[in-house]
Design a protein that fits this description.
Number of strands: 0
Largest sheet: none
Radius of gyration: 27 Å
Strand content: under 5%
Oligomer: single chain
Length: 254
């Protein structure tokens, strides 16, 4: 089921629940109940609960969006470091250069064709990718430079291998959910309390109040869905992509 359809159904369900509860409450209310006589303390509490929950929702959205952006930055850094290795080995002898470039291509292809799907489906990296990175490191570090020009390129190449390893580790740490379960418990509980406070204000069955209550609940549902959609940077919603690898290594397509 598409994400947009899930969002629409969730928002409609939230609106329906609020309207149904309002209608049921109106029918079961005492005949002498006066909705206009809501204590000031309840209005004050409702206002502050709404403000606090809005701040929490805003921080949660900012947190998951920042995590998604950081995940994409890790991919960009990893692909760029690989590209630097690919280009800098041009000063090495043809056999060494071609071997290292072949290893770089194999690693990039493994990430794009196989590892990305495993990350999205299972939330982990593949051991094959780690093995290919080890092979790149061994080929780079085991070569003994024969000229001063090669010696000058050796240390930057080693540094770029370390940058690939660091970015890969950061990518592995970003594969899971951003929000802990306890945070989700707080967000969902806060949503119930915030929407529930609307009924504490004793809203009436007028069209205007029903529409506003429905829009209020739909907005909270949308924000929660947005957080859930961004919660896993590589598998849901607007995900981080492997496009940087394809941009820097277009020959690995297909």
């Amino acid at each position: 089921m598409p994400d947009w359809l899930v969002l629409v159904l969730a928002m409609l369900a939230a609106c329906a629940v609020v309207v149904i509860i309002t209608l049921v409450r109106h029918k079961t209310a005492a005949e002498d109940e006066d909705p206009s006589e809501t204590p000031d303390v309840i209005e004050y509490m409702t206002m502050w609960i709404g403000v606090i929950y809005a701040i929490v929702l805003g921080l949660a959205v900012a947190g998951v969006w920042e995590a998604r952006s950081a995940a994409q930055d890790h991919v960009q850094a990893e692909a760029q470091a690989l590209h630097e290795i690919y280009e800098r080995v041009r000063v090495y002898p043809p056999d060494v250069r071609d071997r290292i470039r072949a290893d770089v291509d194999a690693y990039a292809k493994q990430v794009v064709d196989k590892e990305w799907k495993v990350m999205a489906d299972k939330g982990r990296l593949t051991p094959q990718g780690a093995e290919l990175l080890v092979k790149i490191r061994e080929d780079v570090t085991d070569y003994e430079p024969k000229t001063d020009f090669q010696a000058q390129a050796y240390q930057p190449l080693v540094d770029q291998v370390a940058a690939v390893d660091q970015s890969r580790s950061a990518r592995a740490d970003s594969t899971g959910a951003t929000m802990p379960n306890v945070v989700w418990f707080g967000l969902l509980t806060g949503a119930v309390v915030t929407i529930g406070m609307v009924f504490a204000l004793q809203i009436r069955r007028t069209r205007r109040e029903l529409i506003l209550a429905g829009l209020f609940s739909a907005t909270i549902t949308f924000m929660l869905f947005l957080i859930w959609d961004f919660d896993e940077p590589y598998s849901r919603g607007i995900t981080a992509t492997s496009q940087p690898f394809l941009n820097l290594f277009p020959h690995i397509r297909g």
